[in-house]
Write a structure and sequence with these properties.
Number of strands: 0
Distance between the termini: 20 Å
Number of helices: 10
Helix content: 55-70%
CATH architecture: Orthogonal Bundle
Order of helices and strands: HHHHHHHHHH
Largest sheet: none
Radius of gyration: 16 Å
Low-confidence stretches: 212-233
Number of domains: 1
Mean pLDDT: 89
Strand content: under 5%
CATH superfamily: HflD-like
Shape: globular
CATH topology: YcfC-like
CATH class: Mainly Alpha
Amino acid sequence: MSQYTQQDKTLALTGIYQAAQLVYQLASSGEADEKALKASIDSLFINNPTNTLNVFGDDVDNLQTGVETLLAQMNGNVSVQERNIEVTRYALSLMILAKKLRQGGDGLQKISNVLETAESQREHFGDMHENVIATIARAYSENVSIMTPRIMVNGHHQHLNNQRIANKIRALLLAGIRSALLWYQVGGSRWGLIWSRKKYLQNAKVLHRPQASPNNDKVTSLFNDEQDPSDKS
């Protein structure tokens, strides 16, 4: 069995929280951090990563939205009333859905087949073209929306009824499931999340870059002794 570190688990968990936070941003304002959005979408096409951070572009700066969201949601000094319940609900639902996909059926293979089409579109149209996002959204709609718990996204109707925004939301939910699959793969669990909350917070603080810049050190060196994670999503 492959051995992974707490840092691996934290990186994967921040991927889940990043997707959840971006879904919330899009649903409530129609906009989301473009760098974080691209990193989350790109993660769907990293099938043979060399380490956990490789899934997110080998740069912790790509995960700052997720890091900051995780710190805000799990910090014991923040009152329950101040936490974003919607983001927490999205994150937990993504974990549940990912676990169900892992447990059987051909859902992951069907998703993979659609993502192959999206990957071909990326080569022709560009990574974030609306056609690519629409195809990723279709992979979610056809294979995940039919599962329970069905994620009900709350927000402003004008944004939720905008097809382009709705497609981005569905694509991000699929990216969140991809991060949840990675999280389980590197040893994450919902019980472990409860018992190891302080460890997650400590590692998230290490990953935090309040003023991200090109000169900041990456955390790739933390993975020198780790084996390659793989993902079948």
